[in-house]
Design brief:
- The chain has a single domain, classed as Glutaredoxin, CATH 3.40.30.10.
- A seven-stranded mixed beta sheet has the order 2-1-5-4-3-6-7, with helices on one face.
- By secondary structure, it is an alpha/beta fold.
């Protein structure tokens, strides 16, 4: 009898793996409020509802250039129609080197520092892959893009944004 249940559990595990592995899903459906310090040690509270849709651009040390490319391209496309939030996933930085890491950020806009990856990881950031998230004004995640900027990924995000501001 134990073998009968063992096989059922094995098949359930296989099907679960197949389904979860092939189904796109978000670690979260809606952003929860959070506060992080920027590179100047100023706190930034992110909460919803907001006045505009938001785009979060999240990267680690290895995907910082990807994040810069996304930020520049989205800035040209969407201009001031959204709130941009840049987050640096700094979980791998030892305490001793945090001052140096913070000083190496050369973004003129605030970059929020996620020292423990408590925000970045639950949102789905993967090592060496920039994560771009579009939310509506209530913080509902509408779409995400991972990895380097490509024309196709940019177009998908811009189309989703256009449908958000002009649903007709």
């Amino acid at each position: 009898m134990a073998k009968k249940y063992s096989n059922k559990i094995k098949y359930l595990a296989i099907w679960t793996t197949l389904l979860l592995g092939s189904t796109p899903c978000f670690a979260q459906d809606t952003l929860t409020p959070f506060t992080l310090l920027d590179q100047q040690d100023h706190p930034h509270a992110i909460a919803f509802p907001a006045h505009k849709p938001c785009i979060l651009i999240i990267g680690d040390r290895d995907s910082a250039n990807q994040a810069k490319e996304w930020g520049a391209s989205l800035g040209l496309q969407l201009k001031d129609k959204v709130t941009y939030i840049a987050i640096a996933a700094m979980g791998g930085v030892p305490e001793l080197f945090r001052g140096f890491a913070k000083g190496s950020i050369n973004n003129p806009r605030p970059t929020l520092l996620d020292w423990d990856n408590k925000i970045s990881t639950p949102l789905g950031l993967e090592p060496k892959q920039c994560l771009v998230i579009l939310t509506n004004k209530t913080g509902t995640i509408l779409t995400t893009q991972k990895g380097p900027l490509t024309p196709e990924k940019l177009q998908q995000l811009v189309v989703k944004f256009q449908k958000l501001i002009d649903p007709h």
